Automatic annotation (TrEMBL), chains A, B:
InterPro entries: CBS_dom (IPR000644), CBS_dom_sf (IPR046342), Mg_transptr_MgtE_intracell_dom (IPR006668), MgtE_N_sf (IPR038076), MgtE_transporter (IPR006669), SLC41_membr_dom (IPR006667), SLC41_membr_dom_sf (IPR036739). Belongs to the SLC41A transporter family. It comes from Dryocola boscaweniae. Acts as a magnesium transporter. It is a multi-pass membrane protein. It is found in: Cell membrane; Membrane. PANTHER family: MAGNESIUM TRANSPORTER MGTE (PTHR43773). One of its GO terms (molecular function) is magnesium ion transmembrane transporter activity. CDD domains: CBS_pair_Mg_transporter. This is Magnesium transporter MgtE. Homodimer. The keyword Transcription regulation does not apply. The gene is mgtE. The chain crosses the membrane at residues 312-330, 336-354, 386-408, 414-439, 451-474. Residues 230-288 form the CBS domain. The lineage of its organism: Bacteria, Pseudomonadati, Pseudomonadota, Gammaproteobacteria, Enterobacterales.
């Protein structure tokens, strides 16, 4: 029996790995699937293709989404062409945004709409809104009148709001019936939406009165009235709420689902933990990418030209900041020509500053994201980081100063080294705290390009401080 | 009604913010709580203290954990001293590891064990194992014989395994009973563990046969036998499974809970989505921190001395790599003394390489974490990154070469600049892909210090390439 029980996850993982293996070890397989003739000297891939066809048929949509994400463009196209139409919508909604572009490339608007049809209406809307092609008009046209009105209502919510990720399908019950009635109603209904752990108790005009957990129904006698056992003070969200803050609340309260209500208290839909898990994955991932100036959309398998375009802007910015740093050194070329050792030593000052600054800014960006930092503790954090920098600067700056002294037999140069390191570490600490905080104050995402900015400042600052001090004290 | 409904989350958020505000705007409040005399010229904080006492009483444990995480040490101690003993265990389990140290500092082993007592046994064990104090022996001594055996069984699981985060409390039913019997059994039981969305169907000796969703119980007629409606092929985990991989499976299959079975198919416990959400937060957070050489345990509010110690090692490593880079430049001091412009230009080459390398390595580390990269596509990725680097190198290197030519009126210097940038971008791309992959092959976490390593390589490489080329072509 355990063998059967384990089949599920293990076998699926093996199936996923097998598809990747076949597609990646023999280029001819993808060509074969896509109908291009394989080169005559390549082993004919018919068997492999047949195997993939079987695997694709067997694997559920989320697994296919994972495999598609892990393939380069050509192989991705080949695999996608094997996915049956009725599965494509589900694969799309499970797949990362980074691969959408590739997947829908060869599909007509009509095919795409057909693929969306098996999905829940909220998922259809989400895809229609955010797929890299505007389908909203055509989707609306296919919907019945009443649904169209519902859709129009949620269209204006921001992509990172609760409204954009909420689920419309909710089960509502009245407060004045008994649990027996509720249970009969559920049996009649025959099925419940995924991740249903509670029903919503509303008035006739949809005003939310409370929530009725499935466990509550099961644990209480059937004659109990809903009103007596419902939770009349549940955690609710507004559609305008930020999705990351909703995620924190889900985590804090261990929620599986929660009601979304409009400003008048009417039930609009619900938020489920599976969407929240996606938000959490996406949120932290994006922070990581944004710090280094990587776009949230860049796919690790995107073709070269796309990747070049995605990184173009940040590279240009980086080049400009590097150029500024270079010009700062240029100001001191006379000093360097007098004492060429400065050229060897200056990257140490800049590098240590960059490293420390990046550590500080990473901590602050994450602490801001997790809402650990409030207005009241700004000054504490600045002072703390300055304290850490001062100690590290004195200790390690002292070490480097001594090494410099020994190396160049020049105590004054050693002293300048130590002083420059202390000062640049202080700059790094100060900026590492202030940049994300100022960005937040200005209403910007503190993660975006923070690493690029801090490195620019500590480089330029490091060169200026070190060469400036050298000019004053050594010439 | 909507006002009441919203009370919950909104009011709690306000309460949390209010505690932080009071504690952070007037240092005397924390001193007052901790029984130290406030300075005579500070406004007497009695009222503020009284307000905090009320708020602490009102706020649930997860909210208190959040507030504690957002406070500096002194204020944290003050707030913790106000948390009632019966709430402390719950706050501890909800709080980030980074603050455990601070919280338990003033508690005796006895107090701690008392605080743990209200928790589920799995949470008690988790804390006893991972709190920065060894409580396991004393905890075991307090447990009844049978529980002790169960505990001993899970003690050897790794911290990042399913075994360490699983929940022991499961409801099991037999396959040969009807749903009516199950429902009667549940009513008799009176309550179910949190996040119960399914019961587990087992044989008498605990071998897992299948799962019975609560919705299944509600949707089918009471006379249906469990055997007929149970899911006999559910997703299960082994206690040795990696928690991050389990999290991916939860995300893929939209699970709320899942069985954990031992190698013989016996049910050991279950994994719930609330633990999974914590794993996801922690996982991505740690990746971010590890890349820059920040320890996973560093708390943004840790006192200076602790922060210094936490960053000591990486700073030393960074200093060594910077020193190596400096010595590489030192090798070319003769070249620089002939052409001092090289000193100004070399950081551009190094900086661009560092930026590109960091972008590449971030993408690869995340793709590895999300299991998007398999052995089969290594070479594709290397070629792709090299392609991107080549194009960017030629374009931006060309631009910088032209600027250099204009600036120094030296076409050869411009040529060297372009060539050096192209080469260093290639080094950055190659190393950005290879470092994390080699680390993974060696069984190491590819995130740890990856940013520090790539920067060291692109700095040293950049200086060597640029100054080397200059020595060959310009002298």
């Amino acid at each position: 029996m355990p063998a059967t029980l384990k089949y599920n996850t293990k076998q699926r993982a093996q199936d996923r790995a097998r598809i990747l293996q076949i597609l990646l070890t023999n280029k001819a397989v993808a060509s074969g699937i896509l109908g291009r003739l394989p080169a005559p000297d390549v082993r004919t891939p018919e068997q492999d293709i047949a195997e993939i066809v079987t695997l694709v048929e067997r694997l559920p949509a989320p697994d296919l989404a994972d495999v598609l994400e892990a393939l380069p463009t050509e192989e991705r196209h080949a695999l996608w062409s094997l996915v049956k139409e009725d599965k494509r919508g589900h694969v799309l909604i499970e797949a990362a945004e980074t691969v959408w572009d590739d997947l829908i490339e060869d599909m007509s608007d009509k095919d795409l709409l057909k693929a969306l049809r098996p999905l829940d209406i909220d998922d259809q809307i989400y895809l229609a809104q955010y797929l890299p092609r505007d389908l909203m008009g055509r989707l609306l046209a296919t919907l019945p009148q009443e649904e169209r009105a519902q859709v129009r209502k949620v269209l204006h919510y921001d992509k990172h709001s609760v409204g954009a990720i909420m689920d419309f399908e909710v089960i509502t019950v009245r407060a004045d019936v008994t649990l027996a009635v509720v249970q009969r109603f559920l049996r009649l209904r025959g099925k419940v939406p995924q991740n249903t752990d509670k029903l919503f108790v509303t008035t006739r005009n949809k005003t939310l009165l409370g929530e009725l957990g499935l466990t509550t129904i099961l644990l209480h006698p059937p004659e109990t009235p809903v009103l007596k056992v419902m939770d009349d003070n549940p955690t609710c969200f507004a559609p305008e709420d930020d999705d990351e803050i909703a995620a924190r609340t889900f985590e804090r309260d261990n929620l599986v689902s929660a009601a979304v209500i409009d400003s008048s208290g009417k039930l609009m839909g619900r938020l489920t933990v599976d969407e929240i898990v996606d938000v959490v994955y996406e949120e932290t991932d994006n922070d990581l990418r944004r710090m280094g100036g990587l776009s949230a959309e860049e796919d690790v398998f995107a073709p070269v030209t796309k990747a070049v375009r995605a990184r173009w802007a940040w590279l240009a910015i980086n080049l400009c900041t590097a150029f500024v740093a270079s010009r700062v050194i240029g100001m001191f070329e006379h000093t360097i020509s007098q004492l060429v050792a400065l050229a060897s030593l200056m990257p140490i000052v800049a590098g240590i500053g960059g490293n420390t600054g990046n550590q500080t800014i990473t901590m602050i960006v994450r602490a801001l994201a997790l809402q650990h930092i409030q207005a009241g503790n700004y000054s504490f954090l600045v002072l703390r980081e300055l304290g850490v920098a001062l100690i590290n600067g004195i200790v390690w700056g002292g070490v480097m100063g001594a090494v410099t002294w020994l190396l160049y037999d020049d105590p004054a140069l050693g002293g300048v080294m130590t002083l420059a390191m202390v000062l640049n570490l202080l700059v790094a600490a100060l900026m590492g705290v202030l940049i994300p905080m100022i960005m937040t104050r200005l209403g910007k995402d503190p993660a975006v390009g923070s690493s690029v900015m801090i490195t620019a400042l500590t480089d330029t600052g490091g060169f200026f401080i070190f060469l400036g001090l050298a000019t004053i004290f050594l010439l």
